[in-house]
Automatic annotation (TrEMBL):
<dbReference type="GO" id="GO:0006457">
    <property type="term" value="P:protein folding"/>
</dbReference>
<dbReference type="InterPro" id="IPR000740">
    <property type="entry name" value="GrpE"/>
</dbReference>
<comment type="similarity">
    <text>Belongs to the GrpE family.</text>
</comment>
<feature type="compositionally biased region" description="Basic and acidic residues">
    <location>
        <begin position="1"/>
        <end position="18"/>
    </location>
</feature>
<dbReference type="GO" id="GO:0042803">
    <property type="term" value="F:protein homodimerization activity"/>
</dbReference>
<feature type="compositionally biased region" description="Acidic residues">
    <location>
        <begin position="19"/>
        <end position="36"/>
    </location>
</feature>
<comment type="function">
    <text>Participates actively in the response to hyperosmotic and heat shock by preventing the aggregation of stress-denatured proteins, in association with DnaK and GrpE. It is the nucleotide exchange factor for DnaK and may function as a thermosensor. Unfolded proteins bind initially to DnaJ; upon interaction with the DnaJ-bound protein, DnaK hydrolyzes its bound ATP, resulting in the formation of a stable complex. GrpE releases ADP from DnaK; ATP binding to DnaK triggers the release of the substrate protein, thus completing the reaction cycle.</text>
</comment>
<comment type="subunit">
    <text>Homodimer.</text>
</comment>
<keyword id="KW-0143">Chaperone</keyword>
<dbReference type="GO" id="GO:0005737">
    <property type="term" value="C:cytoplasm"/>
</dbReference>
<dbReference type="GO" id="GO:0051082">
    <property type="term" value="F:unfolded protein binding"/>
</dbReference>
<dbReference type="Pfam" id="PF01025">
    <property type="entry name" value="GrpE"/>
</dbReference>
<feature type="region of interest" description="Disordered">
    <location>
        <begin position="1"/>
        <end position="48"/>
    </location>
</feature>
<dbReference type="InterPro" id="IPR013805">
    <property type="entry name" value="GrpE_CC"/>
</dbReference>
<dbReference type="GO" id="GO:0000774">
    <property type="term" value="F:adenyl-nucleotide exchange factor activity"/>
</dbReference>
<dbReference type="InterPro" id="IPR009012">
    <property type="entry name" value="GrpE_head"/>
</dbReference>
<keyword id="KW-0963">Cytoplasm</keyword>
């Protein structure tokens, strides 16, 4: 065999080997494609699609969590604002509650009969202080509850006695033993009253 023939045989063998290698790689690709198709058929979806679905579910969960946190924050802010408004509106409640006993004592003292000028002038001074206290409380929204002649209201009146009086209609306040007071729309203390049956 000549050198040329040898070289041709080697070249032919190399081509055959390349062709066989290409065929083997092609078979491997077919196997991989078949296995991914089998994976899709077995699992129902492509692994990439499954991963996308998982990520979308996580994003949706995070959005829901964010919206809940936003709603909680808005509710907390609204509650804080309402609490602040109530604190401003009823800021005088504690002071007024403490002063009610002093007002009661002033009322009792003013009702005393004066028998001389010195007592009259003392009672007049006490009456001025009493009226000054009522004016100061009125500026803060604190006012006495009207009771006598009004229909009994369990929210504003505390009935301690019942009587039968033909001069008054049924369920009407006949007498007031202790004044009640309102702070704007809130009852500080109900009026202690006698009610007609």
């Amino acid at each position: 065999m000549t050198e040329e023939n040898k070289n041709e045989n080697i070249a032919e063998n190399e081509k055959v080997e390349e062709t066989e290698a290409e065929a083997i790689f092609a078979e491997g690709d077919d196997i991989e494609e078949g296995s991914s198709e089998e994976a899709r058929d077995a699992g129902g979806q492509d692994p990439a699609q499954v991963k996308i679905a998982e990520l979308e579910a996580k994003v949706e969960e995070m959005e829901n969590r964010y919206l809940r946190l936003q709603a909680d924050f808005d509710n907390t802010r609204r509650r804080a604002r309402l609490d602040l408004e109530a604190a401003r509106k009823y800021r005088a409640q504690d002071l007024a509650s403490d002063l009610l006993q002093a007002l009661d004592n002033f009322e009792r003292a003013i009702k005393i009969e004066a028998d001389n000028e010195q007592t009259k002038s003392l009672l007049h001074g006490m009456d001025m202080v009493y009226k000054g206290l009522l004016d100061a409380l009125k500026k803060e929204g604190i006012e006495p509850i009207e009771a006598i002649g009004k229909e009994f209201d369990p929210h504003m009146h505390q009935a301690v006695m019942q009587v039968q009086d033909e001069n008054f209609e049924s369920n009407v306040v006949v007498e007031e033993f202790q004044k009640g007071y309102m702070l704007k729309d809130r009852v500080l203390r109900p009026a202690m009253v006698k009610v007609n049956e």
